């Protein structure tokens, strides 16, 4: 019997477990470890609550978790409760699927002022992430800014501008819904260092902004190159640019505006003890397509600043790390140690991009220890003994289901539904 430990229960972890199970069948036991007692990583704590069809991908992962050869082991933080070296003693291979949970910093003065929040924190707040459920972002001012030109920036701007009615059918957590409903924010400025041709925003997410109940997007046509210049763009980007252009035709007749401010590089955040304004430098594109500051600056008022400029992985002791992700060669970090998903590639791509990663690494593992070959490691039994000796109480599949059942029972009748148990109550639900 082979024993595999997949560390992290987001998409990358689940696709890897699925691939290993297919490759080894009954010849392997696969343990998916997570630091939380509930799985799915960013599917649960990152993907926007009003994008339920995307979150439904977890149904596929449910099937993996329910299969006989797979166990979900929650409440175990690798690097803290057990080291990677110890896992390698207990398992034939260890696959790190720990994602990239830390916000990249802007690196400008004023970034540490109150009211400046990374998107991982903000997104975690409205999705009920245990570390950010109590964030309480400042929503009392009229102006907010989101720094970034990707889909996460769009998620943040959209969530800030939706009405309570528009959250019907979502699984936004109750505390966020109540706070957003009382929000005074009327203008949300999206700051992008480069222009419309350089956005990493996809057509579907952009298109949504044109159909909001109480908010309308605003663009400056002067920021766009001539329409003919769109022709050579990739079809997806061309579509995004054309949706952005179409925003110029919308009537400005709604209470809130989402202003696209292109060629805009934040150089400082200022305020009296808390964010009040961003100092922005106008940029132009240089020959290589990078943003170059022009020296011309202006102010954008914002008492809430959400930065959405990328993420990095958490380092784990004794695992080579390049500052953003684990150092790996095609997913292999060292003998019997692998990385998949954002921990392998950095924070790019969609949920589906993690699937080939998982399958590729499973193939790599199968090439070094062919299915059918014997192993003599202890796997989960040994891990449980080790955790027990340290007073760490892992949770299992039944515990996860119990939390989910309580969440569903907590859902308020009708919409919007608050499918949520405060993380501080997770262990109370489990009777511990
Ligand atoms: C705000 C946001 C919105 C997004 N929206 C979309 C979208 O709409 N559509 C789309 O296709 N993609 C979206 N994505 C991208 C998608 O979420 C990622 O591609 C995907 O989640 C990456 O998968 P992963 O498994 O590598 O990491 P994650 O999903 O982050 O999973 C990592 C897991 O590892 C666990 N973990 C971390 N450290 C440890 C440790 N030391 N010990 C044990 N467990 C640990 C975590 O708890 C987590 O469960 C979004 C991303 C973000 C940030």
Features:
single chain; 432 residues; alpha/beta; 6-stranded mixed β-sheet; 6-stranded parallel β-sheet; 15 helices; 17 strands; 31% helix; binds flavin-adenine dinucleotide
Structural features, described:
The structure is a single chain. With 432 residues, the protein is an alpha/beta fold. It contains 15 helices and 17 strands. Strands 3-2-1-4-17-16 form a six-stranded mixed sheet, with helices on both faces. The longest helix has 15 residues, at 354-368. It is globular. The relative contact order is 0.19. Residues 7-13, 33-36, 41-42, 46-47, 51, 54, 77-79, 97-99, 123, 152, 155, 314, 341-343, 349-351, 354 line the site of flavin-adenine dinucleotide. Flavin-adenine dinucleotide binds next to helix 1, helix 2, helix 7 and helix 11.
Brief digest:
This protein is an alpha/beta fold. It has 15 helices and 17 strands. Helix 9 (203-209) packs parallel to helix 10.
SSE inventory with pairings:
Elements: E1 2-7, H1 11-24, E2 28-33, H2 41-45, H3 52-55, H4 58-66, E3 70-73, H5 84-90, E4 93-96, E5 102-103, E6 116-118, H6 119-127, E7 143-147, H7 151-161, H8 174-181, E8 187-191, H9 203-209, E9 215-218, H10 235-246, E10 256-261, E11 264-270, E12 277-285, E13 291-301, E14 304-307, E15 311-312, E16 332-334, E17 337-339, H11 342-345, H12 354-368, H13 380-389, H14 397-410, H15 426-429
Parallel strand pairs: 1-2, 1-4, 2-3, 4-17, 6-14, 7-8, 7-14, 8-10, 9-10
Antiparallel strand pairs: 5-15, 11-12, 12-13, 16-17
Helix pairs in contact: 1-4, 1-12, 7-9, 9-10
Bound molecules: flavin-adenine dinucleotide.
The site of flavin-adenine dinucleotide has 34 residues, from α1, α2, α7 and α11.
């Amino acid at each position: 019997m082979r024993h595999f430990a997949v560390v992290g229960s987001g998409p990358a972890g689940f696709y890897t477990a699925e691939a290993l199970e297919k490759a080894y069948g009954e010849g392997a036991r696969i343990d998916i470890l997570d630091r939380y007692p509930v799985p799915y990583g960013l599917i649960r704590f990152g993907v926007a609550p009003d994008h339920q069809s995307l979150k439904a991908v977890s149904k596929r992962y449910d099937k993996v978790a329910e299969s006989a050869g797979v166990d979900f082991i929650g409440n175990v933080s690798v690097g803290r409760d057990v080291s990677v070296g110890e896992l390698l003693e207990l398992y034939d291979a260890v696959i790190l699927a720990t994602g990239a949970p830390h916000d990249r910093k802007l690196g400008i003065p004023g970034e540490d002022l109150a009211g400046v929040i990374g998107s991982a924190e903000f997104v975690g707040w409205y999705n009920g992430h245990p570390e950010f459920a109590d964030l309480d972002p400042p929503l009392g001012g009229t102006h907010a800014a989101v720094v970034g030109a990707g889909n996460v920036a769009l998620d943040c701007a959209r969530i800030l501008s939706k009405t309570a009615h528009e959250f019907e059918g979502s699984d936004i957590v109750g505390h966020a819904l109540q706070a957003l409903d009382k929000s005074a924010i009327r203008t949300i400025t999206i700051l992008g260092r480069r222009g419309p041709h350089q956005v990493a925003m996809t057509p579907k997410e952009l298109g949504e902004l044109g159909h909001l109940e109480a908010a309308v997007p605003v663009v400056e046509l002067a920021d766009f190159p001539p329409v003919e210049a769109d022709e050579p763009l990739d079809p997806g980007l061309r579509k995004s640019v054309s949706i952005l252009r179409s925003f110029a035709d919308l009537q400005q007749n709604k209470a809130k505006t989402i202003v696209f401010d292109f060629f805009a590089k934040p150089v400082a955040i200022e305020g009296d003890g808390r964010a009040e304004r961003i100092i922005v430098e106008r940029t132009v594109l240089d020959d290589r397509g990078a943003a170059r500051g022009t020296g011309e600056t202006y102010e954008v008022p914002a008492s809430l600043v959400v930065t959405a400029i990328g993420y990095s992985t958490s380092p784990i002791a004794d695992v080579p790390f390049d500052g953003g992700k684990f150092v790996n060669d095609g997913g292999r970090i060292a003998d019997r140690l692998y990385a998949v998903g954002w921990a392998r590639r950095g924070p790019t791509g969609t949920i589906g991009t993690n699937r080939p990663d998982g399958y590729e690494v499973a193939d790599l593992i199968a090439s070094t220890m062919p299915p059918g070959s014997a192993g003599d490691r202890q796997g989960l039994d040994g891990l449980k003994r080790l955790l027990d000796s340290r007073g760490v109480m892992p949770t299992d599949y039944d515990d996860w289901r119990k939390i989910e059942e309580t969440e569903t029972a907590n859902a308020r009748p009708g919409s919007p539904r608050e499918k949520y148990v405060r993380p501080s109550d997770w262990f109370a639900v489990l009777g511990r």
